[in-house]
Amino acid sequence: MVLVVDDHPLIRCGLVQMIESAPDLALYGEAATTEELTLAVDSDPPPDLIILDLMLGNADGLDEIKRIRAFRPGLPVLIVSLHDELVYAERALRAGAAGFIMKKEPMTEVLSAARAVLRGSIYLSGRMKVLLAENGIVSDPCQFLVPEADPPLTDRELHVYRLVGAGLSTKQVATQLKISVKTVETYREHLKLKLSVRNAGELVQSAKRWVARV
Hints:
The strands form 2 sheets. Strands 2-1-3-6-7 form a 5-stranded parallel sheet, with helices on both faces. The protein has a two-stranded antiparallel ribbon with strand order 4-5. 53% of the residues lie in helices and 13% in strands. It is of the alpha/beta class. It has helices spanning 9-21, 34-42, 61-71, 85-95, 107-118, 126-134, 155-165, 170-177, 181-195, 200-213; strands at residues 2-5, 27-31, 49-53, 55-56, 59-60, 77-81, 99-102. The protein is globular and about 50 Å long. The chain folds into 2 domains: 2-140, Response regulator (Rossmann fold); 155-213, Winged helix-like DNA-binding domain superfamily/Winged helix DNA-binding domain (Arc Repressor Mutant, subunit A).
């Protein structure tokens, strides 16, 4: 479920239509102001992904990302902006965004970015990943990929892993995902096996390191 947040009606309408036309995505709603964004983030259940304009009226999108992260640490935010990624992408990631894409990109690329972020990846253009690696912000562009696992993590397992890394307890993960505590415990067992960690403590530390890195 995707929430589209943009104060430009034409752009917001285009993003909404894009989400609604995608067979594997669903629209949670749309917002044009920080107040509407806050109401959506506070809602139960919250959206699974927020597509957010970097400049929302007079509000600073970087501050909005930080507020979302503080209240919903496992809720990913994809920035879609008119502003140059070379100037703002690093700042957006440091604020807690899960990706950055410029509005000049084709709608198909925006969809690819949304899908990548929902899978748990960090989305940036290829040139931006390399630039961040060259500047020492990440040691390797491959850090933007999902954790290595055998077999690969499912989308739901990756979501649980991200929430664990964000500091949520098993009960809090269950509440956020609207599933039972027993189901979360099952996902955690799958994660331990796939990631080759020995116990719950190692799983938490592994998840925290990954969340901090991405």
